[in-house]
Amino acid sequence: MKRRVALLFMLVLGALWVMFSSPTYHYPAQPELRRKANYLKRIISTSLTDSSDLAKLSELNPEWALFSLSFAVYAFTNMAEQDSSFRREAAQYTELAIQKVLTNDISAFSRTASSPPSRLDTASSVLYLGHLNLMFGCHRLLNPASHYAGLHDTLSRILHGRYLRSPSHCLESYPGLTWIPDNTVALASLGLHSQLTGSPYRQYCTQWVAYARQHLTDASSGLLVSRPRTSQHDAEEPRGSMLGWSIYFLYRFNPAYAAEQYRLYKEHFSTNLGVVQLYKERPGSFAITPGDVDSGPLLLGYGIPATAFAFGNAVALRDWSNAERLRRVISIGSREVKTGDEVRYGVRMVDLPVSPLAEALLLHAETMVSWRP
């Protein structure tokens, strides 16, 4: 009898293991996505007072306020691609988000010293300009009559010109600091401009990928470095948080190269535990540290951003099994907070006061889809 019970237990355990180790991801239903979007819509609609969630986030790190708005826009654009009835609403809140990003409250961190606050500083950080230009493109995609079309054309032309003059094929994020992930956003914005208008900028994106294969990748792994070698600094090794971010935007202008980088990222940085998959910030590392502003806390070398960004990469590139394993990791580490018609997420075990950013990043990740004019 004991043998039969033990055998039955093993069979049930085996069946559960097979079921959970061979998962498949499905996009959330639209009603669920709308409730998640409602929280971000409220964040976008709220004025930037000292007491607002976005203002508090900006005090911690001005970039995070920008990313909260930009990734909310990218998520809304994804949702509109999946459900055309959401398109008008997505355009409305994209416009509100752009208005906030254009204010000095958000843009101040990126400006050059001589730039007046009342004007768009087209010589400023590629980190800021890349996201702004991609947001312009999203609004134009959602609303072909966008009144930002002129700004979109001008900024795209200026960014393209700056790239043509850059020996490293990259622009600075901050004075003396150049990061590959920030440049992939700007390149994605040029690619989207070409999709929408027929401009020639996509040709440069293709040239950039060819250059990146030769000069911006780690020789041993084939993965994009985090920073290129410039006159100000040496190249920096590939890192999980940087790669996951870059793959998001490579997907927008060169899906084949994004898929290649994703495969290598998965091969060199991830551990498949059957039920879940985890991604490291640096391959071979077993560090337990607070990490830095990009990696977040590291547990045995595994990072929250590295794993969360890989989830969005997997959804975009339709690696459904890996997407589901990664979704499980996020579910283990997060908790739902329901208020009225809103759903947002908190972080289990770690007190991170970045809910607008976390929610925007997760909604963007779980809805990743190609954009079609």
Label this structure with key terms:
mainly alpha, 373 residues, two-stranded antiparallel sheet, Glycosyltransferase
| CATH domain topology | Glycosyltransferase
Poorly predicted runs = 8-19
Number of helices: 15
Major sheet attributes:
2 strands, antiparallel
Order of helices and strands: HHHHHHHHHHHHEEEEHHEEH
Structural class, from helix and strand content? mainly alpha
Name of the CATH first level: Mainly Alpha
Q: Averaged pLDDT, please?
A: 90
Fraction of residues in H or I helices: 55-70%
Tell me how many strands there are: 6
SSE order and pairing:
Blueprint: H1 2-21, H2 30-45, H3 53-60, H4 62-82, H5 87-101, H6 104-107, H7 126-142, H8 149-164, H9 180-197, H10 201-215, H11 240-253, H12 255-269, E1 270-272, E2 277-279, E3 298-299, E4 302-303, H13 304-316, H14 320-333, E5 334-339, E6 342-347, H15 355-366
Antiparallel strand pairs: 1-2, 3-4, 5-6
Helix pairs in contact: 2-4, 2-15, 3-4, 4-5, 4-7, 4-15, 5-7, 7-8, 7-9, 8-9, 9-11, 11-12, 11-13, 13-14, 13-15
